[in-house]
Amino acid sequence: MTDPLPAQLAAIREEFLSLEVRDRLQLLLEFANELPELPGRYAEHPDLLERVEECQSPVFIFVEVDDNRIVHLFATAPREAPTTRGFASILVQGLAGLSAEQVLAVPDDYPDTIGLTQAVSPLRIRGMTALLGRTKRQVREKIDA
Asked: What's a Pfam family in this record (predicted)?
């Protein structure tokens, strides 16, 4: 049976699951450090980004869907919030270059499957689930427009 997840999300999940629980937090911190800076068009216009209210720390996202229906997710979160930044970075990297259809097909419970439920609080996992949910909602809005 093939994994329904896009390859990069499956690889991220496998990377987390290959580690002991205590080491998963370190990997999450590495992802936090890899969150790309916003491009100027968003850094200069933060009003274009949507706040993900469910996250404990302020995180903002914006989704673009290009003419080829390829999704580009942009996110920002403060460096003082490494868990939130890590979650955002996982999604930014994991969804990069996927089609709108592939993003919409990502299981809503993906955050529960990467092995962090034992390492971080359920509230933080709900924040990542909300990040994914809002991303998918923005994708739907863009392709329906």
From this structure: SufE
Q: 0.90 cut: is pTM over it? A: yes
Domains and CATH numbers, the chain: 7-144 (3.90.1010.10)
DSSP letter for 65, please.
Answer: E
Label the pairing between strands 60-65 and 50-51.
antiparallel
Q: ∠ CA 117-123-125 to the nearest 5 degrees?
A: 40
Radius of gyration, alpha carbons of the chain: 14
Q: What is the pLDDT of residues 45-104, one digit of tens each?
A: 888 899 998 888 899 999 999 999 999 999 999 999 999 999 999 999 999 999 999 999
H/E stretch holding 141 reads helix 122-144
What totals of helices (H) and strands (E) does the chain contain, helices first? 6, 3
